[in-house]
Amino acid sequence: MIGFNGGLIGADRTTSISTASGVWTPGEQIKARRTNVWPVLATTDPSYSSVSLLLHGDGTNNSTTFVDNSPSPKTVENNYGNIISTAQSKFNGASIFCNNTYMEYAANTDFEIGGDDFTIECWYRGTSTIGSPGIVSKGLNENTAGAYALRFLSGSDAVRFYIGNTNSNIITGTTNVRTSGEWNHIAVSKISGSTKLFINGTQEGSTYTTAYTIATGGKLHIGRFYYSVNDGTVNGYIDDLRITKGVGRYGANFSVPTLPFPDS
């Protein structure tokens, strides 16, 4: 949109692909075009075909309908209390509320990461410090090591990335994600054998370079650490959860999304 002074309204003065407030003056437009930094607004995702799960958490308050906007939509197999809540949201006025509850998707090849690149990310706003829960995890069955998880440990507010191959948390963050009372963007990304954890676009913990292959089989859990029976359920809000198989989206610090993830 062109403003009264000829500026472009709605595009930020950066190379970000996200729409933001601001006005480009005619002189800035000319300079940006000459230096090839004219912004491209985020309307599509170049890696959308590799998205395995995309949950915006949109809907009416207390709804139990969770829409997957990935190219191959999945339906929740079992829901153990999760709801759509309008009490908190990062985008679009609603999110998934896990009140020490969880839901699960049936085993699917789209969730099988193996030894390939991947990205698991979401916005999270915690409300409790109880137990050792997971935000998202995939496992073979209770109390059997395998697969992966973004989870917490009892007594700690930092998020961890867990893999069952070593039955350990291979990367541990430092930011208080669990009880900060704020929305935090969490992402774990593997590119060419290097796995990194990012909180709000900044890498935390060490880069994990030991080779591993994620175990196959098992359901995908939203709001639960599959390995724990008694205290594995999280208490908090999840918005814009996205799993990308075969693509590591983040290799270095980045600007966090300012819009919901694209649906195409």
Average predicted confidence as pLDDT: 83
Largest beta-sheet details: 8 strands, antiparallel
The count of DSSP E runs of length 2 or more, i.e. the number of strands, is: 17
Q: Give the CA-CA distance, first to last residue.
A: 23 Å
Number of helices: 1
Unreliable stretches (pLDDT < 50, length at least 5) are 1-22
Oligomer: single chain
General description of the model:
- The chain is mainly β and 264 residues long.
- The chain has one helix and 17 strands.
- Strands 3, 5, 6, 8, 13, 14, 15 and 17 form an eight-stranded antiparallel β-sheet that branches.
- The protein is globular.
- The N terminus is likely disordered.
Helices and strands in order, then pairings?
Layout: E1 8-9, E2 23-24, H1 26-34, E3 51-55, E4 78-79, E5 83-85, E6 95-99, E7 103-105, E8 118-126, E9 134-139, E10 148-151, E11 160-163, E12 168-172, E13 184-191, E14 194-199, E15 202-208, E16 219-222, E17 235-245
Antiparallel strand pairs: 1-2, 3-17, 4-7, 5-6, 6-17, 7-16, 8-13, 8-17, 9-10, 9-16, 10-11, 11-12, 13-14, 14-15
